[in-house]
Structures are given as structure tokens and as C-alpha cells.
Amino acid sequence: MAKTKTTFFCQNCGAQAAKWMGKCPACGEWNTYVEEVIQKETGKNKSPIQRDRKAPVPHRISEIEANHEQRINTMNGELNRVLGGGLVSGSLVLIGGEPGIGKSTLILQVVLKLVGKRVLYITGEESEQQIKLRAERIGNGSDDCYILAETNTQRIFQILEEMNPQIVVIDSIQTLHTDVIESSAGSISQIRECAGEFQKYAKITNIPVILIGHITKDGSLAGPKLLEHMVDTVVQFEGERNYGYRILRAIKNRFGSTSELGIYEMSGTGLREVLNPSEILLSNREKNLSGIAIAAMIEGIRPMLIETQALVSSASYGTPIRSSTGFDTRRLNMLLAVLEKRSGFRLGAKDVFLNIAGGLRVDDPAIDLAVVVAVLSSNEDISVDQNICFAAEIGLSGEVRSVNKLELRLAEADKLGMEKIFVSKYNLKGIRPEDYQIEIIPVGRVEEVFGKLFG
Ligand code: TYD
Ligand code: MG
């Protein structure tokens, strides 16, 4: 009789070890190893989808038929774009995101629009009634969408075989469990095994499977992270829960680019596609407020204009506070140090708060100049004209540095009727100012910008 086999898994990163350890050598976390049974005593460990298939034989690469991937149009432009042009048949797609961000809403909304495609939506988290309520909220659609409340993969595969759907959705992978493995649902080995079963299912049947998975804020919770190498496409759904905007980002894509990005707004009736991202900026603009500057930034490959807001005030307590939302606080500290040391602005005893409008997180360094201008504008209490925008990085010596894809930024600013844009003077190679309506103002140092705006 075969022995029960157990292994220890780090619940943080999924690393595997033969014995318990206090500190995980892979991720450095303490006390995260848990013993999991990975094989039961009896020969029950047949994966439910091991069909009688002929043993594979090697083929010359020239003998292999190139059948171009078939894509299913999801009828959702932003999702199509992020997936690289639609859902590829037989692919396994993982949608990760924090709980409550709108993953279930997005996918339900998409499958309800797929008229004529038989979809099986398997829910382990919510009851059929809850899904029904949500469907009513976003507007009922396709009648070919079946809901199944089941978490056992063996039973799921039975139903899949009988029903033979064209698209399968699993909400969420953390709730599934397979009989092959004994540990509880949501544990590392369960998640890995269940995902593996669906991977085989997708490849054998050529039916696309969408897995939904939760991750926590730091993205560390076991599950989606360790699935990344098993699935074809990883899409992350992110956003600040208290704001309406959500960004769908491809992190890995075997069938497309990972620089694509989809933007949605959560409304009372589901997620609305945001076709013109700059509307995030244009939503509520008050005239002539100090501490506001507009950046021409790029997320993925999409240019958009976004408002940066700063508040500078004298520190009321000993240590000044530096706080930012949507922008790296360390980078803010660096920019403030540059202003202080290189350009002589006295901000050392001031509290500085920075906010990126719309609840977006921005990593594009081209927003630096707008951040600096917003801080100076608030400090001087002089407003910046609404029709001026900025696109440049700031270096440690206070120099204004060039940024990539300036043409896209210029075109976007132009489209939205901006009148002036400040860019680095080193950025002008290959740019033909006569192609744009907008006036391009090249600058070399932060003080120059200050002089031109407030001087
Ligand atoms: P949900 O899709 O359940 O999130 P997830 O599956 O990622 O955990 O969405 C949760 C939030 O979305 C919830 O707080 C309610 C909100 N919501 C709306 O604002 N409008 C809607 O039409 C729907 C369906 C949900
Ligand atoms: Mg959900």
C-alpha cells in the first residue's frame, strides 16, 4: 500500500520543503510553512482529466501544423485589448485583484454579453441568487450563461463533460478543491493542483478557461502569484476601492503584449469602459486653484493627462509630514530634496501632501515635473494656467530630463486642447513642433520652469 505523502509549503511564496522550517529560504518570511498532504494512501490519485490519450511522439518543428490561434471577441473593447485582441481558444487566463475590486462583476458582465456562446460560470464564493442579483444590476443579457455553485473539481469536470460549454469561468480558484489532494481549499497544493487540472482541460478541449483569483494589497497572498507560470495570461485588476476607476493590466501574455491597459469606471450598473482616459482629469476641474499641475503621462502604451495636486503648509509639529497617494513617497522625498538642495526652495520645514487625481497609481517618471510644479505652486500660492501641462523627469541635480514616447504625449495634450507643454530641451530630437498646435516649451532646469511660470 502506498504511503501517504506530505510536503511542507510556504504559504507566502509557495516554496516547497521536505521538513518544517521557521524561515522560508525563498522569500524570507517567518513561520509560513504548513504541512500539506499531497497524495492519499489509496490509488485514488488519478487526476479527473487524465483521459486515454495516445502517448505523445516528438515531431520536427517543420512538421507541426501552425494553426493560428482563434480568438473569441469578448464584446468588451478594453478586455479584448488587454488580452491582445480577444480570448484565445484553449487558453487559461488568470484575473487577479484584491477582494471587492470588481473581478466577478467584470467577468459576469462580459459573459452575459456573449450572445450565442454557451458559458459555464462556476461560483464557489457566492450563491446562485447572489449572482442573479448582480446580473439584474448590470442588466441581464445572454440566456446561454449557466451558473453552477460547486467547488469540487471532480464534480465540475463531470458537468463540463455533459454540458460541453464554450467558455468556462471559475470564481474563484481559491475556493476549489480536488479529491486528489487532502489539504483544505485555498492551500497552496490545492490551488496548484486545481489550476493544473483546468490547464489540462483547456489544452485538451480547446475551451478557454478564465480563473479569478484574489491577491492582497502587497500581492503576496498565496495563490495567483504561484499560478503565474502555469497560466497563459495573467491580468491584474487594480484601483483604489474608494474611487470609481479601475485599471486592467496584462502582466503576462503568451498571446499578446503586456503593455496594454484597459480602464473602467465602476458605476451603479456595472463597469463602464473608459474610452478617453483623460476624462479622469477633466471630471471636476475648478478654475485657478493653486497646487495643481497637469502631467502628460503614459500608462502602458496609452497617453493620458492627469492632474497632480499638492498641498504645502508649515509643519505644525516638529517633524514635517510627507505623504502621497498614487505616487511613490520615496520619489516625492527625492524631488523635495532636489528642490531644496539644487534649486534653493525652502521646503524643509513644510508639510507636503501629494495626491494623484482619480485614485490612479502612477509609475511613469514623466510625472515628476508636474509634481514639482504642483508643490511649488502650492508653496507660492500661485495657480498654474489650466491649459499648461508637463512631461519630463527630474534628475538628482535638478535637471529636466527627457521621457519616452513624447510624440504620443504631445498628440494627446493637443487633442484635449492644451495650449502649452513643458518638456526637456534634450527631448526635441525628431519632434516637429509644426505638427502640433500646442506650444512646446523646452527647459533645462527646474529653476527655469519656475521662472517661466511664477517668475
Ligand atoms: P465584485 O465583482 O464582487 O468584486 P470581486 O469579485 O473582485 O471581489 O464587486 C464588488 C464591488 O463592486 C462591490 O463593493 C459593489 C460594487 N458594485 C458596483 O458598484 N456596481 C455594480 O453594478 C456592481 C455589480 C458592483
Ligand atoms: Mg468575486
Give a verbal description of the structure.
There is one protein chain. Helix content is 25%, strand content 27%. The strands form five sheets. A nine-stranded mixed beta sheet has the order 8-7-9-10-6-11-12-13-14. Strands 17-18-16-15-19-22-23 form a seven-stranded mixed beta sheet. Helix 8 links the parallel strand 17 and strand 18. The model has no long low-confidence stretch (mean pLDDT 87). It has three domains: 34 residues, no CATH class; 205 residues, P-loop containing nucleotide triphosphate hydrolases (Rossmann fold, 3-Layer(aba) Sandwich); 175 residues, Ribosomal Protein S5, domain 2 (2-Layer Sandwich), CATH 3.30.230.10. The chain is built from eleven helices and 23 strands. The chain is an alpha/beta fold and 455 residues long. The chain starts with a strand and ends with a helix. Bound molecules: thymidine-5'-diphosphate (TYD) and magnesium ion.
List key phrases describing it.
3 domains; 455 residues; alpha/beta; 9-stranded mixed sheet; globular; binds thymidine-5'-diphosphate; Ribosomal Protein S5, domain 2; 7-stranded mixed sheet; 25% helix; binds magnesium ion; Rossmann fold; 23 strands
